[in-house]
Amino acid sequence: MAQPKKSAGKIRVDQALVARDLAESRTRAQALVMAGVVFSGETKLEKPGQQIAADAPLDVRGRDHPWVSRGGIKLAGALEAFALDPAGAVAMDIGSSTGGFTDVLLTHGAVHVFAVDSGTNQLAWKLRSDERVTVLEQTNARHLTPDLIDRDCNWLVCDASFIGLAKVLERPLSLAATDARAVVLVKPQFEVERHEVGKGGVVRDGALHRRVCDEARAWFESQGWTVDGIVPSPITGPEGNVEFLLAARRGNVAPCHVPEPDTAPA
């Protein structure tokens, strides 16, 4: 249990979680509370805005999400932020890894997912054994072919690491259906120049965040896609990097809801 810092008065539960390093952001803290895993002593705290004594005991118990990996929180957050529904979708999951994004898609009604990753034996067994999943491991997304992606994919999601979006997504985007939607994670740490990455592999400069988001938007548009919006991910990357979720579409696909104002860095 985290030890309270000495302070007087009252504080919101979500603010207290951040202050005590039990959550990396207010958004994340609110998700923890809504998941029912935040306690003060033996009392479950059910409202992020609830006022508690600044010196009240506070801890997080158990998992706060149902997905096979923490990555699922990111895509679930995007679906909520953009009011998107993948029910009935056939999707490509680029950089599937353990399968957090795939898990979210299937849980929300996707009928099939092509899980693409250059690694091996990473995808969770419950997804690997699901007949709705085509496992394409040890597969470089830049080398995908219509023989591998043998259905029209009207959704594409991506959570790739150690490579820029323009390199990893050019081929998958070209294989997507004429009418398609994309939700991708923009990771500044893999988009900026090496000398721009700070200590511990973290990009902290807001100006770099803005530049990366602008470049991602421009690149998608150069590929014939319309970017509806960019929002911060509800959680940071493993090293504490701020990441962003971009929603795009092409063809006869309706614009999605965009939070007002667009919450990409300005």
From TrEMBL:
UniProt superkingdom: Bacteria
Transferase in keyword set: yes
GO terms assigned for molecular function: methyltransferase activity; RNA binding
Biological process (GO), any one: methylation
InterPro entries hit by this protein: Hemolysin_A/TlyA, RNA_MeTrfase_FtsJ_dom, S4_RNA-bd_sf, SAM-dependent_MTases_sf, TlyA
Domain Ribosomal RNA methyltransferase FtsJ residue range list: 67-249
Annotated keywords: Methyltransferase, RNA-binding, Transferase
The family this protein is said to belong to: Belongs to the TlyA family.
NCBIfam families the UniProt entry points to: tly
Protein name, as recorded: TlyA family rRNA (Cytidine-2'-O)-methyltransferase
Species annotation: Alteriqipengyuania halimionae
Organism taxonomic ancestry: Bacteria, Pseudomonadati, Pseudomonadota, Alphaproteobacteria, Sphingomonadales
